[in-house]
Automatic annotation (TrEMBL):
Transmembrane segments: 30-51
Keywords for this protein: Membrane, Transmembrane, Transmembrane helix
Identification of the protein by name: DUF58 domain-containing protein
Amino acid sequence: MKLTRAGAAYIVITLLLGFAAVNTGNNLLFLVVSALLGFMTVSGVLGWLNIRYLGVAIRLPEEIYDGQETYVTLQMENRKRWLPSFLLRGEVGGGRFDFHSIERRGAETGTVAMTFAGRGRKELGSVMVSSPFPINFFIRNITLPLDAHCVVFPRPNPCGMPGAPADARSRGAARSSGRGYEGEMETIAEYTGVEPLKLVHWRLSARHENLKVKQLTSLADVPVMLDIAQIPGRNIDERLSCAAWIVNRSIKANRPVGLIAGTKVIGPDTSRSHRLKLLTELALHGSH
């Protein structure tokens, strides 16, 4: 609990009036001091109840990078049966959030900007919640338990992309599971209006009332195998940051990427789940 300037001034005035009442024996002063003390007591009880019976939960994004600001979703629940809670401020992981009011047996959701330092596994074990309610004489606080875990990826640092093979004709020879306009025919589907006319299967369309289009597989670039030991960098963190950048850049360009981390080998792919798997492996490299 922290005493504010307004609270300190209120206490000083109450004490001065109390001394005056004792020295003069003035009944009116005694009544005024009693009212001031009663008001302080009531505000104290309301302030204490305001931050009681609260619960908090947090939802972290799938991708969190070292040193980069990220936004997390936080939900605070008021479990009191009769009273709402007001003017709540919380702090978690260096980020702050505010809720003006939460109805009884209700919940509010907000967004918190947080920055994690260092790669690897991180844990958020508690949230500090404070409130100046009801009249900003005291700022009361309480620590709420929080069970949240995440993996912080290395911060991507732009570096040189792996070179292409000597025979440039081999580029694009690999097939991708994604849809495209240059690969082999995979299936026939209804025309939706967005496909180019060159994909319309005219002969098949003539046998049906609706136009039919060919769905082709997209072409992927030649797979890349990243060996952490071979990536340039002055230290392991620089090499991992470079590798994270290459993984994101390559998969965005539909180029399959694999990883060699010591004795562990992960084959190349272009899916989102595969990208997150590679980034997780880079984040935890050397910390097992």
